[in-house]
User: What shape does this take?
Amino acid sequence: MILPAILLLAGCGSKKHHESVAELQRVQSAVHEMDIVVAAGTNQMEFSRRLTDTLLKIGDLQQGRDQTLSSFSKSEQSTVAEVYQHLSQALEAYKDSKDFFGDTHKEDLDPLEGRNLFEEPVYEGLQNQFPSLGQIPPALEHSGNKEYWKGDMLQALWKVAGEEDTKAKQLIDQLNQK
Assistant: This one.
């Protein structure tokens, strides 16, 4: 009598684990859709529309994290929290990237024409927010100040988002094997 009850509880725990992993996969899949949009090529309006759709699909990430976290064993909770941290960073990088659509350095493009540059304090803020953000070369240096191409930052932020998405997927795959 006790053995069937134990097996039933173990089965429920296993089912709950799989459902929780499926929720992590759902959120990661939604984030990954943005990586596909970026790889396919997109303009600012389409990117913004797709990002809004993704954010609506995911819902409140913090609330989802709190609900999902409690579904995992204590030994797995730090991994789950790390998954959500990576997904959150990816989404933040995508959100921040909306401000950087613009041309990148081209030989025939005058950096002083148009609105294709941004200033060094913005770059430094993004470096603090995203420690894995790659270095981009300045477009202009004048009076000790640097300005950078928006298009270069757009690509750098998309790279950060893609890397964060990949890290989240790897951790989810580890949880799925348990």
Summary: The first strand starts at residue 117 and ends at 119. Helices lie at 2-40, 44-58, 61-69, 74-97, 120-129, 150-176. The longest helix spans residues 2-40. Residues 17-176 form a domain with the Four Helix Bundle (Hemerythrin (Met), subunit A) fold (CATH 1.20.120).
